[in-house]
Amino acid sequence: MKKLIIGLLIVAIIAIVGVLIYRTSGAKTSDSHNSNNSEEASDSNSQPTSLVSGDIIMPGAKFTIYYGNGCPHCENLEEWMKKNGYLPSGSAINQAAVDAWISNAKLKFNYKEIWYNQTNHNELSSEASKLAVPEDQIGVPFLIDSVNGKSYAGDQSIENYLSSL
Length: 165
Prior knowledge:
- Residues 27-51 are annotated as: Disordered.
- The structure is a single chain.
- By secondary structure, the chain is an alpha+beta fold.
- The protein has a single domain, classed as 3-Layer(aba) Sandwich (Glutaredoxin), CATH 3.40.30.10.
- The chain contains five helices and six strands; from the N terminus they run H-E-E-E-H-H-E-H-E-E-H.
- The strands form two sheets. The chain has a four-stranded mixed beta sheet, sandwiched between helices. The chain has a two-stranded antiparallel ribbon with strand order 1-2.
- Helix 2 packs parallel to helix 5.
- Mean pLDDT is 77; it is low at 25-50.
């Protein structure tokens, strides 16, 4: 009986350590993806001051786009946004490039990851609730227009909305 309990404790400890390692590596991947929007930064140890926890935070933002790292619809939207100048693109995204892009951005918005960031996930739930969006209609990508009190879900819907501005 004693050996069984010790064995179970060892298995539990190994499982917990494995989960912690997996979550830590997932968060690093998410931060890397978010901080430079899928392009590798020229200096992996420096993160632009314009970014907070890998999210794009723009002064005077009127919109917030929530996305999930690894979501194919979010990747489609991200590519469309890069092509249309809403997100920076290029092979060397560094602090100066991001800061310059933010100061000259076509549209002021925040860009927040929710699958690996519980704070952002909770924020999306709260903001969508304020707009009376049914829970089953909240997914990623999701845009909230805080000025007009509107929301848009899905890459095509968001692309259409941004194109109309």
